[in-house]
Automatic annotation (TrEMBL):
<feature type="binding site">
    <location>
        <position position="286"/>
    </location>
    <ligand>
        <name>CTP</name>
    </ligand>
</feature>
<dbReference type="InterPro" id="IPR036551">
    <property type="entry name" value="Flavin_trans-like"/>
</dbReference>
<keyword id="KW-0460">Magnesium</keyword>
<feature type="domain" description="Flavoprotein">
    <location>
        <begin position="6"/>
        <end position="161"/>
    </location>
</feature>
<comment type="similarity">
    <text>In the C-terminal section; belongs to the PPC synthetase family.</text>
</comment>
<dbReference type="InterPro" id="IPR007085">
    <property type="entry name" value="DNA/pantothenate-metab_flavo_C"/>
</dbReference>
<keyword id="KW-0479">Metal-binding</keyword>
<dbReference type="Pfam" id="PF04127">
    <property type="entry name" value="DFP"/>
</dbReference>
<feature type="region of interest" description="Phosphopantothenoylcysteine decarboxylase">
    <location>
        <begin position="1"/>
        <end position="188"/>
    </location>
</feature>
<feature type="binding site">
    <location>
        <position position="341"/>
    </location>
    <ligand>
        <name>CTP</name>
    </ligand>
</feature>
<keyword id="KW-0288">FMN</keyword>
<comment type="pathway">
    <text>Cofactor biosynthesis; coenzyme A biosynthesis; CoA from (R)-pantothenate: step 2/5.</text>
</comment>
<feature type="binding site">
    <location>
        <begin position="304"/>
        <end position="307"/>
    </location>
    <ligand>
        <name>CTP</name>
    </ligand>
</feature>
<dbReference type="InterPro" id="IPR035929">
    <property type="entry name" value="CoaB-like_sf"/>
</dbReference>
<dbReference type="GO" id="GO:0004633">
    <property type="term" value="F:phosphopantothenoylcysteine decarboxylase activity"/>
</dbReference>
<dbReference type="GO" id="GO:0015941">
    <property type="term" value="P:pantothenate catabolic process"/>
</dbReference>
<dbReference type="GO" id="GO:0010181">
    <property type="term" value="F:FMN binding"/>
</dbReference>
Length: 395
């Protein structure tokens, strides 16, 4: 049931927009309060009168009129959940890039509520690399997606792009808003992500190819299940996930200090590619080359192992998960790493391909109980699956 839950329903342009009226009827039957917002495209397919009739509330479609009446910020703050159904390729692109040139996109930029999108578009548009990239970006930020379905389209062609049926969208909404949809509520999760930078001198450092995409997606997925998340991140360019406390660090030693300061935690997911070594004596002045002088030889020192430290910590998180980036004997090395580092699970991945910085990941989950081989999935999907497994393990 969705008794008294507040849903802001945004309809963008699609021939499938009529299904949103049926969705509204189901939502109201389940007890939800629904406020409708139409984009200019949406208004081509559904009238504001029809939407107002079914929601039983005023429909908003004009940024400037909304401004005069209640303001887009108040509309953005009102809902427990924002649902975009149908979500056109255009609106997804605007969301991904933070455009805010009409009421719907402005609300989507201003809201702190969770967002569910139900895409609907022509199969070629759905499969276009631009749409794929926009969706991956949105998912990495915690936006949830239902559908699209595969089947006959309005045009004489078929493929992926059909708006999900209203009962399916309703089920996705209930999953997000019901207590069962937030199984990690009340839990604190600590996540590390990205590379570390180990200084050589004030202008040079040693780094690695980690992008932070996987770790940030895990932080977003844990937050989406209701966890309070502290994300300790090395230097990355991926955006901060919404609803997550982000602590930025540079070196392995700073990362360890930030992690220890963030304890206690129920869950620790150490996805960062921490540098194993640092330069033993980083120079406080820029190293200068002098004519005829030999190239400097850098002496390295071992960095603290953050995963192993937390696994054996006095305030050890209940579930400690490490990653193993391997180029050969992936599972064998991961098994050994799990025991050596004292963590509960290892997410092992083969990094001999282009995983580092790439969009997808093929992982094996190594636990005390055995090994699960997961198929190749987008990093956001790996994150969601891992978050679900964590929720299951914590009961
Ligand atoms: N890790 C860490 N602190 C370090 C090094 C690694 O917390 N100083 C964590 C990583 O975040 C990851 C796991 O340990 O969760 C595995 O890292 P990896 O570099 O694969 O392990 P190593 O111990 O370096 O093993 P190997 O030398 O076999 O690569």
């Amino acid at each position: 049931m969705l008794t008294d839950r507040r849903i802001l329903l945004i309809l963008s342009g699609s021939v499938a927009a009529y299904k949103a009226l049926d969705l509204t009827r189901l939502l109201r039957k389940a007890g939800a309060a629904v406020t409708g917002v139409l984009t200019a495209g949406g208004a081509r397919f559904v009238t504001r009168e029809a939407l107002a009739g079914i929601t039983g509330a005023r429909v908003h479609d004009d940024l400037w009129a909304a401004e005069a009446e209640i303001g887009h910020i108040r509309l953005a703050r009102w809902p427990d959940l924002v649902v975009v159904a149908p979500a056109s390729a255009d609106l997804l692109a605007k969301m991904a890039h933070g455009l805010a040139d009409d009421l719907a996109s402005t609300i989507l930029l201003a809201t702190r509520a969770p967002v569910l999108v139900a895409p609907a578009m022509n199969p070629a548009m759905w499969e276009h690399p631009a749409t794929r990239a926009n969706l991956a970006l949105l998912q990495a930020r915690g936006v949830q997606v239902v559908g699209p379905g595969v089947g006959a389209m309005a045009e004489p062609e078929s493929g992926p792009g059909r708006l999900s049926e209203p009962p399916e969208i309703l089920a996705a909404i209930e999953a997000i808003l019901s207590p069962a949809g937030r199984p990690l509520a009340g839990r604190h999760a600590l996540v590390t992500s990205g590379p570390t930078h180990e200084p050589i001198d004030p202008v040079r450092y040693i780094a690695n190819r980690s992008s932070g995409k996987q770790g940030h997606a895990i932080a977003a997925a844990l937050a989406a299940l209701g966890a309070r998340v502290t994300l300790v991140s090395g230097p990355v360019v991926v955006p901060d996930p919404p609803g997550v406390t982000v602590l930025r660090v540079e070196s392995a030693r700073e990362m360890l200090a930030a992690c220890e300061a963030a304890l206690p935690a129920d869950i620790a997911v150490m996805a960062a590619a921490v540098a194993d070594w640092r330069v033993a004596q980083a120079s406080t002045q820029k190293l200068k080359k002098a004519p005829g002088a030999a190239a400097p030889i850098l002496e390295m020192a071992l960095n603290p192992d953050i995963l192993a430290t937390l696994s054996r910590h006095q305030r050890r998180p209940g579930l400690v998960i490490g990653f193993a980036a391997e180029t050969e004997k992936v599972v064998e090395h991961a098994r050994e790493k799990r025991l050596r580092k004292g963590c509960d699970w290892i997410v092992a991945n083969d990094v001999s391909g282009g995983v580092m910085g790439g969009e997808s990941n093929t992982v094996h989950l190594v636990t005390a109980g055995g090994v699960e081989d997961w198929p190749e999935l987008p990093k956001a999907a790996v994150a969601e699956r891992l978050a679900q497994r964590i929720a299951q393990a914590l009961g």
